[in-house]
Amino acid sequence: MDKERARVFISCGQDEKREELEIADKIREMLRRKGFEPWEAARVHSVKALRENIFDRLRNTEYFLMVDFRREAICSDISPIAGKACSNSKPDHRGSLFTNQELAIASYLDLNILAFQEDGVKRLDGLFGHLQVNAIPFSDRADLVNTVERTIDKEEWQTNWRNQLILAEFDDSVVLVPKMNGRNATYFFLQVTNRHERAAAQNCYVYLRSVSNAVTNEPVPFEPVELKWRGYTFPNVSIRPRACRVFDAIWFDPADPLRVLFSAHTDWMGCIPDLRGPGS
User: Fold this and answer.
1) 171-215 confidence digits (pLDDT tens)
2) Alpha-carbon distance 250 to 134, whole Å?
3) Contacts of 120 (CB under 8 A, 6+ apart)
4) How many whole angstroms separate alpha carbon 53 and alpha carbon 180?
5) Which CA distances in Å does 41 have to 17, 18, 44, 94?
6) How would DSSP label each residue in the chain?
């Protein structure tokens, strides 16, 4: 778990003629050197590729880093003559369409956003005029990587966290619990850790997803139901940042040691798989 690093989604222009790909690669290498797990957004050309690459990557990232490079000039006069130069002496330029689209998704997902905008791009154009994103201007492309690195250090981006819940074996996973009949039931626990650096994980529920017969590989039928958190009577809990909670995985009654039991919030046995005999 300690080897998992914070992920950075790099939204950047990909124009090879303007050295944008080279700059994006240098930013990616700088982030990797600092201990992050960077991913450079590739341009996709289908709805499926957009969903599987861009959307999934944005859903599973901690930081969003955007570089809005200068594009074509925006003329003050609208002329039907193609290729006519702008009449204004110092025209504004549009920014990157793709990076603005990715910025919209990142904002919706409430990601940590850091945006850089090249001088000449029309201020507050596109989504910048509607989102609370204070883009950092830059004019020297050769020094952009250093500018990004200094800003990341100033913003204190951390590498050792993730917006993620981790399921793991609990250190004291086997515990003997006294029962009312005088016998000690054997409980096995699992642990859920919230890897987020500052946000609590709200309304966390535990469900048994599937069970299969180890000999026949056939699925064991049951209806999913909320399992019980250890020492807690409600089905949902909150997990503080960088903290963990433990839940009852399975337990055994010494009177029937070959039957696997579950601590579930239900009064109907159809929600509990009937597991008996040796198994894993």
Assistant:
1) 766 777 776 566 788 899 999 999 999 999 999 999 999 998 888
2) 50
3) 70, 92, 93
4) 54
5) 18, 17, 9, 20
6) -TT---EEEEEE---GGGTHHHHHHHHHHHHHHHT-EEEEPPP--SHHHIIIIIIHHHHT-SEEEEEE---SEE-SS--SSTTPPPSSSS-EE---HHHHHHHHHHHHTT-EEEEEEETTBPTT-GGGGTS---PEEE--GGGHHHHHHHHHHHHT--SS--S-EEEEEEEEEEEEEE-TTS-EEEEEEEEEEE--SS--EEEE--B----B-TTT-PBPP----BBPBTT--SS-EEE-TT-EEEEEEEEEETTEEEEEE--BS-S-GGGS--EESS--
This prediction's pTM = 0.75
pLDDT in tens, 45-77: 555 666 667 888 899 999 999 998 987 787 655
Neighbours of 117 (CB within 10 A): 24
